Every structure is written in C-alpha cells, then in structure tokens.
Amino acid sequence: MRFRRGRPKIPRLISEEPKLKVFKPQGIPVKDLEIIKLEVDELEAVRLVDLLGYEHEEAARAMGISRRVFWNILKSARKKIADVLINGKGLKIEGGHYKIRECKFDEECGKYKYCRFRLKPCEVFESHEG
Fold it and tell me: Is-above-0.90 flag for pTM?
C-alpha cells in the first residue's frame, strides 16, 4: 500500500511559549476531569484576534499562514475553549506545529517597511524629510 506524501506543514509563527499550560475548574480533581488539548498555535490565533484585536488577514500574516488556514485554526480553538468553559472540562496547552517568531512584533523593532511581517507597529513609517 502506498501512502501519499502530501504537502509539508508550514510551522506557524508564535510570539512566545505560554506561561501557564493547564487550566481546570476549581474544586474538581484532575482525575475526574476530561482534558481538552489546545495546541500552542491555536492559542496564538485566539490571542492575536480576541486579545490584541488584529484583523484575520493581519493575524494570518503574523503567523505566516494563509487566511483560510488561520480561520480553521481559530475556529477549532474557539470550539475547544467553549467546550471547556460550558461543560466544565480541563484545558491543557501543548503541541502543534509552530516555531517562535524572531521579531517581537508587539514592540516597535525599528525595521518598519523592511519588516517581513508588515504588522501594525512595523507599518508606521517615519518620514525623515527635512
């Protein structure tokens, strides 16, 4: 039997590893909980759109993926988070296909128009006309 190789998965770019990796409802032992796994790239998608207020296109560019792939990741993450909150499950953040972004796009890095991510801070062009 032959397996189709397919296209290799592009690593999603994230800003940093999450500081906290496990969440659970108070008062329920972990052994009694169903644990839902949220991948690190899914958490980054939620952070960019729901916390930082990025548009989908801008957030997809920040993660180095297409808008379609970004939307699928975000939709999956939101479904998992809703399941955890509504049904009282535990949440464990781990895994995914990602790498840490070298550019700290949350801060102005000084690259401006030379920034490969072309995000909000990097789109600010200083004019040096004098």
Answer: no
8 A C-beta contact, residue 115 and residue 109:
yes
How far apart (Å, rounded) are the C-alpha atoms in residues 123 and 20? 31
Between helices 67-87 and 56-63, what is the axis angle to 10°?
A: 100
Helix (H) or strand (E) holding 76: helix 67-87
Yes or no: say if 23 and 91 are a contact pair by the CB < 8 Å rule.
Answer: yes
| Per-residue model confidence as pLDDT tens for the chain (130 residues) | 566 677 777 789 888 889 999 999 999 998 899 999 999 999 999 999 999 899 999 999 888 899 999 999 999 999 999 999 999 999 999 998 888 876 655 555 545 444 555 555 454 433 333 3
Q: How far apart are CA 63 and CA 55, in angstroms?
A: 12
- ∠ Cα 102 104 109 (to 5°): 105
User: What's the CA gap between 73 and 64, in Å, rounded?
Assistant: 13
